[in-house]
Amino acid sequence: MTTHRALSYGPRLVASPTGRLIAVVLVQPTRAIENARPLPGEPGSVYARTLEQHDVLRKTLEYCGVEVTVFESHASDPYEVAAGDAAAAFADGAVMMRLTASSRRGEVDRMQSEFARIDVPIAGHIAAPGLLDGNDVVMAGNTAFVGVGTRGNELGRRGFAELARSHGFSVREVKLAPGVPALRSVVCAVSQDTIVLGGDKADASAFAGFKTIVLERGEELGAGVLCLDERHVIADIRYRTSLSIMRRAGIGVESIDLYDFTKIGVTPAMLALVLRRD
Predict the structure, then answer these.
(1) What's residue 12's pLDDT?
(2) 107, β-bridge pairs
(3) 187-191 and 194-198 strand pairing
(4) Of 17, 130, 189, 221, which has fewest CB within 10 angstroms of its CB?
(5) Pseudo-torsion of CA 26, 28, 33, 34, nearest 10°?
(6) DSSP assignment of 211-262
(7) What pLDDT does residue 228 have?
(8) What is the per-residue burial (b if ≥16 Cβ within 10 Å, else e) of 101-135?
(9) From the centroid of its chain, how far is CA 140?
(10) Residue 227 CB: number of other CB atoms within 10 A?
């Protein structure tokens, strides 16, 4: 485990889902990432490049004032790098997920052990036989959106919905188009009332009452940005049209190269497990 800055915690973890980002966990990529199946039309990821790009993400977060802890991977699954799958944080603690891929479920136990070490409280668990991956949850304002696609199951979504409602959130399910890796690959909240949406890859009707910034077809993964603060995000520089659309909409964008992750459907939002926001 490599720690780049000491973490300190007050009584609240995530006060606002799009508030100022204070602390995150990243999981270091391993050589297994070269075994991940790339998205249609994409080449495979290159391990050395993922290490470089992951380090740039860490440095960018730290430059923006975010406390970053990097955990070493202890699994052979290439998708452990998608740290956001393991948990979702509310104000008083983190909800531990039960991942769809059986090969990845040990990640949650390891993450919970690390949470105990750094004093992150646990607010609940998705219990068997429920399944839900954290990157299929997006929160904005007082609403929690839960993706309905190839991952997770009804029991997992129902269990999370009960926990979210107990924390004051209403819950909406969002149907995903075939082939979408996760909700956070094509949807991000950039403010309390504004959603960036990747074209027609998620059911836009689920976001009624929210402002939406819709990205063009072919750049849907450009919506998987990591929110640093209200209307300020980290994005993959590859999606240049999407960057322009977001900037014209008044979103501040820090663009970096994360191409070797987006090749396999892992976006900036999926790489970071958010622990604390103002």
Answers:
(1) 80
(2) none
(3) antiparallel
(4) 130
(5) 140
(6) EEEEEPTT-GGGG-PEEEETTEEEEETT-HHHHHHHHHTT-EEEEE--HHHH
(7) 98
(8) eeebbebbebbbeebeebebeebbbbeeebbbbbb
(9) 13
(10) 27
pLDDT of residue 6: 40
| Residue whose entry in the numeric block shows the structure tokens 């040990």 | 106
Q: 98 near 107, Cβ under 8 Å?
A: no
Six-digit token pair at 162? 């009960």
Signed CA dihedral, 44, 37, 107, 255: sign only: positive
Identify the CA nearest to 133 among candidates 171, 182, 178, 167.
182
Q: Enter the tokens of residue 13.
A: 């973890």
How does strand 143-148 pair with strand 137-140? antiparallel
The Cα–Cα gap between 209 and 264 comes to 32
Q: Which residues of the chain have pLDDT under 50?
A: 1-11
pLDDT for 8 equals 43
Structural tokens at position 52? 């470089």
Q: Cis omega before residue 129 (within 30°)? A: yes
Please report, for residues 6, 107, 162, the alpha-carbon distance to residue 27 in angstroms, rounded to integers and kept in the order given.
16, 10, 28
Residue 76 has a pLDDT of 86
Encoded tokens for 120: 């992150």
Domains, the chain, in order of start with CATH, read: 10-277 (3.75.10.10)
